[in-house]
UniProtKB/TrEMBL annotation:
Superkingdom of this protein's organism: Bacteria
GO molecular-function terms, A-Z: DNA binding; DNA strand exchange activity
InterPro entries: DNA_bind_recomb_sf, DNA_bind_recombinase_dom, Resolv_N, Resolvase-like_N_sf, SSR_resolvase
Domain Resolvase/invertase-type recombinase catalytic per the UniProt entry, residue ranges: 49-199
Name recorded for this polypeptide: Resolvase, N-terminal domain protein
Domain Recombinase: 206-332
Source organism (scientific name): Ruminococcus albus 8
Length: 618
């Protein structure tokens, strides 16, 4: 209640007072100062600097006529209209309207509006201005808020954006334009899919090849010399930087005719499977038709590989070897062709050694390497009859409680993410004075073993650092191999994992390893895990710890079952452990790679011939 209304105590009195006040006064008692009526768009004769925006969506020559007609038409429209002066024609040719990416003229036009160089924009249609609803409405509103406001006139739809009732029509039409682009995108994707299914592949220009009248790839012998030189130099040990410098010095041309090479340009040649005669279709895909941003295809869409599609410049074995070198070079392991090694005897039989910088192997490579040491291809832990000696406690029915159930300060554990791993301080105490370790995994038993290693061991990992007088755990990068480990264990790459381990040593204490059972893990989620899959225990507001649901049915493994596993793995005092046994290379694939001596001779010969040809040409 305000003013005198507060003096009226009943609702009826207050309502009567309000009705009396809102009867108003006699209009003749007011002097009305009229507003300036907005000029009608068609009858407005005021001076305006007019910008024209024209666009065609492809750079096909057939579209050039549309492009030129738009510019010529609106030049005439502006010149015939009284008071209009053509400021500039802004034109984008061969650019899609669903995104502002590469639409340099459009962006420049909007900026000129903001700096006061333009009073009005004219364009053919809403679809020419933008096929993205957010961009269309957003920029129209932004221009209307400027002082003075700037309108956009869409000729086909007869919409002028400064009219107060224009936005509903504009929203509807721009939505239709966007959906039209969506439909065209779907049709194009379906067409590409049908082509690939029938082995009809796109053949973009590629160094070393030309296209015949049927569009098939045929070797360009002069360009093929450059391709062979690139592959042979890389196999021999040259880096992409060194190869690029050599090609630039020799004046070798790229497919576009440039004589200046970059390391990236060299790498693109090395990674293209067409040089060995194969074709892999759909290496990338476009998730959104609105921004057209290509993304690496990680099985998001079907891929199609056709071997021996055309004549090869490089042998397939040399190409595979180069891909392995490239893959491992990303993690600092250059100039070494990676090779898996597996333990053939002792307590660690069937364990595959993990090299922290080797990324070229698949989960199946690890499985096959482990299976290769067993006669039937896999280890079989046969349940043995349990015999209890007289006088011993009969522990049948008892369980060994899981270490995860106890919050011990000196826990022996290892934590995993997709990018790094870290051992606990308890692990370091289990192997005192050990600076370097070697990790091994048994893919079938789902066990991870850690054993001491020498510093010069190519698989050695430095798992601690010296701080003051004490060794502290060190975070270990594992982007090269951890994706394979997650795949082997069927782990979720969005989660982190923690696994408890146990130190095992022989009777004399001369051999010791830490063994981790990778099937029993603590899982750390950023969000709540799927309902029913885990037992959840909040750790913090951002992290949720979870345990496997089957843990609720027991405290841990049966006592004799756990002891039996150690016995079958030869982790007992009455057998030879031989845990320091070296791994024997497992050949994942026999490659007939060009030998270093041949590579050296070929490189020297090719460079010499190129230099002679240049001298003769001069």
């Amino acid at each position: 209640m305000i003013g005198s209304e507060e003096r009226y105590t009943t609702p009826e009195e207050r309502k009567a007072k309000i009705r009396e006040r809102y009867k108003g006064i006699d209009p003749n008692e007011l002097d009305v100062i009229p507003a300036i009526k907005p000029a009608d768009f068609y009858s407005d004769k005021s001076n305006k600097r007019v910008a024209v925006y024209a666009r065609v969506s492809t750079d096909d020559p057939n579209q050039t006529s549309s492009y030129e007609l738009q510019k010529n038409h609106y030049t005439d429209v502006v010149s015939r209209h009284e008071g209009w002066e053509l400021s500039q024609i802004y034109a984008d040719e061969g650019i899609s309207g669903t995104s502002l990416q590469h639409r340099d003229s459009f962006v420049r036009m909007i900026q000129d509006c903001k700096t006061g160089k333009i009073d009005l924009i004219i364009t053919k249609s809403v679809s020419r201005f933008a096929r993205n609803v957010l961009d269309c409405i957003g920029y129209v509103r932004e221009l209307a808020k400027l002082q003075p406001p700037i309108g956009v006139f869409f000729e086909t739809e007869n919409i002028y954006t400064l009219n107060p009732n224009s936005e509903m029509s504009l929203s509807f039409i721009s939505t239709l334009a966007q959906e039209e682009s969506h439909n065209k995108s779907e049709i194009m994707n379906s067409s590409i899919e049908m082509r690939f299914r029938r082995g009809i592949f796109l053949t973009p220009p590629l160094l070393g090849y030309d296209q015949d009248e049927n569009g098939d790839l045929v070797i360009n012998q002069e360009e093929a010399k450059t391709v062979r030189l690139i592959f042979f130099m890389y196999l021999y040990g040259y880096t992409c930087v060194q190869i690029a410098e050599t090609l630039t010095r020799l004046g070798r041309r790229t497919k576009k005719g440039n004589t200046k090479w970059s390391p990236r340009a060299v790498l693109q040649q090395l990674e293209n499977e067409r040089h060995c005669g194969d074709v892999l279709a759909r290496k990338t895909w476009t998730p959104s038709y609105l921004d057209h941003k290509a993304k690496k295809n990680k099985q998001d869409r079907n891929q199609y590989l056709m071997r021996d599609h055309h004549e090869a410049i490089i042998s397939r074995d040399d190409f595979i070897a180069v891909q392995r070198l490239i893959s491992n070079a990303k993690y600092g392991c250059s100039r070494i062709l990676p090779q898996l090694s597996v333990i053939h005897e002792g307590a660690l039989k069937g364990f595959v050694i993990i090299n922290p910088k080797w990324a070229a192997f698949t989960a199946d490579d690890y499985r096959n390497a482990s299976a290769s040491v067993y006669e039937d291809g896999h280890v079989f832990l046969d349940e043995q009859q349990i015999n209890v000696n007289a006088g011993d406690f009969d522990l049948r029915g008892f369980q060994v409680a899981r270490a995860e159930l106890f919050n011990t300060r000196e826990k022996t554990s290892i934590s995993f993410s997709t990018s790094n791993i870290k051992f606990s301080a308890g692990c370091l105490k289990k192997l005192p004075k050990v600076i370097y370790v070697e990790m091994l995994i048994h893919p079938e038993l789902k066990l991870l073993a850690v054993r001491p290693a020498a510093k010069n061991n190519k698989n050695a990992i430095k798992w601690c650092v010296l701080k003051e007088t004490d060794h502290q755990p060190k975070s270990i990068g594992g982007k090269a191999f951890l994706p394979r480990i997650f795949e082997l264990l069927d782990w979720d790459t969005n989660c982190k994992y923690s696994v408890r381990g146990e130190r095992l040593s022989n009777e004399s204490g001369t051999e010791a390893v830490i063994l981790f059972k990778m099937t029993d893990t603590e899982v750390f989620y950023r969000d709540k895990p799927p309902e029913g899959d885990d037992v959840v225990s909040p750790v913090s507001s951002k992290t949720i710890r979870a345990f496997p649901l089957h843990w609720t049915a027991s405290f841990g493994d049966e006592y004799y079952r756990q002891a039996q596993i150690k016995e079958l793995l030869n982790f007992t005092n009455n057998k030879t452990w031989n845990t320091s046994s070296e791994g024997i290379p497992y050949i994942t694939e026999e490659l007939d790679v060009t030998s270093p001596s041949v590579l050296e001779a070929e490189i020297g010969s090719m460079i010499e011939n190129i230099e002679k040809a240049d001298d003769n040409h001069e």
